[in-house]
Write a structure and sequence with these properties.
Length: about 200
């Protein structure tokens, strides 16, 4: 396998881990066990271990339930700022661990950065979603994230560069969306704080 393909696959795994390392490991391990994907590169085949799949699955189930609860979801995402980028870097290194240490180091550096980018974008989106105190939007976000991870973990082995480019485009769109949501939210809060608006509300 050529180096560029290996890096693309490593970054695809890191991207998914930036969203949820638990879901990434559980889904990828299950797909490998079911032979939906072929032998995984480097040291990544460890995710197919039944114990690894089981523990990752339990952690993902806890994460799924926790992120259904408004404000608990934001707290969970904040704490995982310390978990997802390192996990993304580790999985990228395992993917690229193919005899050339320099490639593995490069994959780890790029993978950690990409994992941080996907996590930070997700964090901003979750904060925005939590301004609405109901579980439906959180549930929809969870299912959307699962869909992205599952799709990427299947196609990145067949079409590594195409999958990575499409994932990065989605990340760019979500970054713009987060910025738009927060600017709109700040404008709305600013209007509510204006004296004229408060006086009108008091008269009403």
């Amino acid at each position: 396998m050529d180096t560029s393909t290996l890096i693309a696959q490593a970054l695809g795994v890191a991207y998914a881990a930036g969203i949820s390392p638990y879901a990434t490991v559980a889904l990828l391990g299950a797909a490998r066990q079911l032979e939906w994907v072929g032998p995984l590169p480097g040291g990544l085949d460890v995710v197919a271990n039944p114990w690894v799949i089981g523990i990752a699955g339990v952690l993902f189930a806890i994460e799924f339930v926790a992120t259904l609860v408004p404000w608990v979801a934001s707290a969970w995402e904040t704490v995982h700022s310390l978990v997802r980028p390192p996990a993304a870097a580790l999985l990228a290194v395992l993917t690229a661990w193919h005899g050339d240490v320099s490639v593995a180091v490069l994959a780890g550096l790029l993978g950690g950065g990409l994992g941080l980018a996907t996590h930070t974008t997700k964090l901003g989106l979750r904060y925005a979603i939590d301004t609405s105190p109901e579980p439906l939007s959180n549930g929809a976000a969870n299912l959307g994230e699962m869909g992205v991870i599952a799709t990427l973990m299947y196609f990145v082995w067949q079409y590594p560069w195409t999958s990575l480019v499409l994932a990065l485009l989605l990340l760019g769109v979500l970054m713009v969306l987060v910025v738009v949501i927060w600017r709109t939210f700040r404008r709305a809060v600013g209007l509510l704080r204006r004296p004229g608006h408060r006086a009108a509300a008091a008269r009403g």
